[in-house]
C-alpha cells in the first residue's frame, strides 16, 4: 500500500455567497463539506486511480469525527483506509468562501489543535508500524501547533531506515529541516522553492534544493507544468495548453501521480506526464480537489516532456 | 421554569484575523466556539440571572453535538436544561470574522438543516409537554428550511391555549404571521418594526404593531434604548449615556430581562429599566453575548424611563 501522512488534517468547508463584502452579513447559499489536508487529498486521488492507500496523521473532536465519516463515505475507486491517530484537540476547519458571481475565493484557515508530546509519540509508533506494509510514503502539509519543527526530518529518517521511499510536500522551516534528512522526492511550488533556496530561477533553485539533500526535486510551475531535477537529469513537462479552472488540489494530484509512478517503477518522463495530466484534469473538474477522468485520459498523450537541453 | 425556543440553533464561531481581505488567504489566529441562536442566548442570560430555564428547538449532526456539549459545559449561574429535539440534518454554523485591528465584523451564516414534517411533529409534541411547566415562553430567531412560515403563529396559539405568556422575537413574514396569533410581547428592532408596519416613526409603528395583534410591543432602538407600547400606555427607557462595544446579544439580553420581569410580575417601567441595563452591560462585555455583571448593577439605577407625555 501507499501511505500518506497529514499531521494537520482539516474539515474543508466551501461556502457559496453572492459576493463577499467585509463588515457586512452574508447568507451562505451552499455549504460543501470535504475531508481536507493535503495527504487526505493525495490518498483520495490514489484511491480513485485504484491504488491501495492508507492515511495517517491526527484527527480529534467532532470536526475530526466528521472528517473520518466523510472519508469512510467516499465510494469511487479503492476505499482509503483510515489509520488516523486520535487527539484531544479538535481537528481544524478551513473555509473557502466562493463569490457566486466571479468564482473568486477567500480562504480562512484555523491553526489546528495543539498536539501533545504523548500524541506525537503515539503517532510515531503508528507510523513505524504502517511503514512495514508501505511501498511509498508521502508527508504532506503544514505542522499543527505543538509539533517540533524537525518533525518531518524525524519521519523522513524513520522511512529511510525502513527502506520506504519518501516524498515530502511542505514549506518553510519544516521543508528546510526535512530536506536535510535526504527525502527521495520533494514537490515544492515555485514560491516554496524560491523561499527555500533564495533563487527565483527554477532550474538553478531545483539544483540547489538537490544539493541541500533532496534526491529528486519536482517543482510545480503552475500552468507551465512541472520541472524535475533528478539523479538522471532534468525534465520539464507541460500540458498541451494552459487550462482554466479551480487549482485547488492540483498539486495534491501531482503528488498522487508521482507516488503511483514510484511504486509502479515507471521512468521519470512517464511519471511527469501522468502528474501533469492529472493536475490539469483536477483544475478542469467542477468539484474542487476531484479530477475529471475523461479529461485526464484525453490530456495524457498530449503532455510534452522535454529534456534539459531542449528545455533550456 | 422559563422556556425558550430556537428552531434554527447554531454553532457560533468567532474567527480573529489580522484584517479580512476578499480573495486572499487568512490565518485565523483565534477561534471561539459558542452555542448560538437567539433562544439559547436568552436562556444563558436567564440562567446567569438565576432563573430555571429550559431550551428547546432542534439540534443535529456533529455541529449539533458540539452545541449541546457547549451548552452543558457552561457553569455560571443556574444550568440551562437541554430539551432540544434531534434532527437528521446538521445544525448550521454561523461565523463572525473579526478584524483584530478595527474590531469590525464580517458575518457568514449557513442556512440550517431542512426540518422534515416528522421532526416538526416531534417538536410540537415536545413543546406542548414543556408548556405544562412553563411560566413564560420565548420564540426566537429565524425559521430553518422546511418549516412552514406560519410556524410561530402555530406555537403562539399552543402557548396561549396552555395559558403561558408568549414573547415572539423574529422578523419578516414569520413575524407578520405570528403577530396575527396575538402573542403577549413582540420585541422587534427599529428595522424589523419598519419592515412590518411600513412606518419608520417608532411610536406610530409600535402602535400599528399592537393593532395587528401584539398585546405589547417592545421595540429596541439600538443605543437609544427601548420603546414599549403596552395596554397600560407608552414608555421609553434609555441608558444614562450611549455605550460603546460589541452589540452582539444585546437584544437577546433585553428579551431575557423582559421574560424575568414577566414571571416576577414587576411593572413595565421596572422591566424596561432591567432590559436596558442588561442590554448595555452586554454591549460593554468583552465577550460577545455575555454581560458585564458589575456594569449591569451600576447602570440599573441610572436608566431613565419616561412616560409617553414626556417622551414625545
TrEMBL record, chains A, B:
Residues 10-289 form the Carbohydrate kinase PfkB domain. InterPro entries: Carboh/pur_kinase_PfkB_CS (IPR002173), PfkB_dom (IPR011611), Ribokinase-like (IPR029056), Tagatose/fructose_Pkinase (IPR017583). It holds the Pfam family PfkB. Keywords: ATP-binding, Kinase, Nucleotide-binding, Transferase. It comes from the Bacteria. The keyword Glycosyltransferase does not apply. The keyword Transferase applies. Belongs to the carbohydrate kinase PfkB family. This is 1-phosphofructokinase family hexose kinase. It comes from Streptomyces roseoviridis.
